[in-house]
Amino acid sequence: MDPYLLFALACYAAVMLGxxxxxxxxxxxxxxxxxxxxxxxxxxxxxxxxxxxxxxxxMLMGLxxxxxxxxxxxxxxxIGLLCGALLNYILVAPRLRIYTEVADDAVTLPDxxxxxxxxxxxxxxxxxxxxxxxxxxxxxxxxxxxxGKLFESVFGLPHYAGVLTTISIVVLYTLLGGxxxxxxxxxxxxxxxxxxxxxxxxxxxxxxxDWGVMADSTTQWIxxxxxxxxxxxxxxxxxxxxxxxxxxxxxxxxxxxxxxxxVVDIGQATRFGISWMFVSLLGAVATGFVGIAYVQKFxxxxxxxxxxFIRFSEILFHPFISGFLLSAILAAIMxxxxxxxxxxxxxxxxxxxxxxxxxxxxxxxxxxxSRLAVLAVAVVATMLALNPDSSVLGLVGxxxxxxxxxxxxxxxxxxxxxxxxxxxxxxxxxxxxATVLLWISLPExxxxxxxxxxxxxxxxxxIASTIAIVVVSKLSAAPKQDLxxxxxxxxxxxxxxxx
Length: 499
Prior knowledge:
With about 500 residues, the protein is mainly alpha-helical. It has a single domain (about 5-390), classed as Sodium/glucose cotransporter. About 80% of the residues lie in helices and about 0% in strands. The N and C termini lie far apart (about 60 Å).
């Protein structure tokens, strides 16, 4: 192994662990500090933390690889994601930040739902927490698969060794520093990803004397394999754009809005986050686009299209720079895994444990239970990730749809519809999650069609969840007046801020 490459990766790992130690010393004395950083996170850290935890390894591996598999349909996925993220900042972030504080200082999404609908211990909180844990475990395993592919491709390690190395580093700094460490590492990781996604496609394109010829080569190959942009069918177009719906229900992103210092900072976070996301998505799509032409011209052997960013990093740059670029992949993977582990552990501690426990743990016990929960989720996700044939984009797509359908309509309606009821919320969560799981799992041999291939499962799941919430809320008893008062208090605070 080249010593420059090893040194660069070692420096990156040391920085991540150093931030974990800093977070351990400054923000983990109580549960609120461990889970939300004391609601004192600045706008730039919030924006990059949300972006880095969102995009993960699939942006540097899954999205470029999708250009090989889906062609120009990938562009519509990127457009859908960008629009969804912008709407999430505009529609959800301000109200969620205020409402979670008004709702008796809720620190997790299940905690917010329970307090929003007047439930102390019951089915809504437990169902929300369990669905979050299930889909987060699947989501975390997707990141670990990406980590396994990275270490397998670069260092020649077995897949399982790469998975274990990735989870070991992430668990250590997440256990130590909690939300503050996760957010700070996300900021560093997001910065690394941003630079890498600009540098790699530009340097790869410079290997061609004529960029027009390069573009023609890629376009012809995509036309033969997948069809041109105008050939994308209506259902395929809807499926790609529908990725944006997922943003409204992603707990690891929404928790960033809950933790920001104040609602006034959300405007700056929006500008910073969307700018970062636009450039990063453009770089990821460009990497796949140039990669297709490069493979055609130079005969690059590429067994797995999702490793094109890795191969470019290895063959086009000095080993020390390669180490920095490969750190970007590791950064993307770790940023999402750490966020998912932390949110999963907070649900296990704040929502599952407290429902079944006869006594409320003190702050030190709460932090200890959160750390144990991080470890438990990590173990299960690691076991799921040991299959080297798993697709990063496929696993992310399933988990993204699950969250988007189960929680997306619930989040939006809970923030904008005061007459929504607890029964409606519970019906929406179960209907959305069940629809996605059925859409994924029903075998083609039984029903005669691949439902996920027909249309992305988030679309039927989101629609079914919305209908269930509205219908059941209309049929059930109206919410109590104090809950409606909390809703109007939130709206009043938001209007005061706007004026």
